[in-house]
Specification:
This protein is mainly alpha-helical. The chain folds into two domains: 61 residues; 29 residues. The protein has three helices and no strands. 0% of the residues are buried.
Length: 103
């Protein structure tokens, strides 16, 4: 792997900082468009990318590859479980008629 010089780090940090500002501006711009559900589908990947960049560079996770991959795998498994658990519950759990009654 190619080593970067100490002179490249400030340039890289400024570029990362500007990209974070740009992504934050993009998120704010999308939120002002009031796209409702479509806005969520646009904002979430941008926010995840932004969080990944911040963690990778500014939390120095780039130097701990094995640990990061394990934590990311566990995070993805937990996220998918929490995302689909309510849908599984709604589809496969027995319901009584009173639960569908609108008051």
């Amino acid at each position: 792997m190619e080593e970067h010089s100490q002179q490249d780090e400030p340039k890289r940090d400024i570029l990362i900082y500007l990209s974070i500002i740009a992504m934050t501006g993009l998120i704010i711009g999308i939120s002002h468009l009031q796209l409702k559900t479509m806005g969520i589908f646009l904002i979430v990947p941008i926010a995840c990318t932004e969080a990944g960049i911040l963690a990778y560079y500014f939390m120095h996770l780039m130097t701990k590859k094995k640990t990061v991959h394990l934590i990311l795998l566990l995070t993805v498994i937990t996220f998918i479980t929490l995302l689909f658990w309510p849908a599984w519950d709604v589809v496969y759990s027995p319901r009584t008629p009173s639960e569908f009654t609108v008051f």
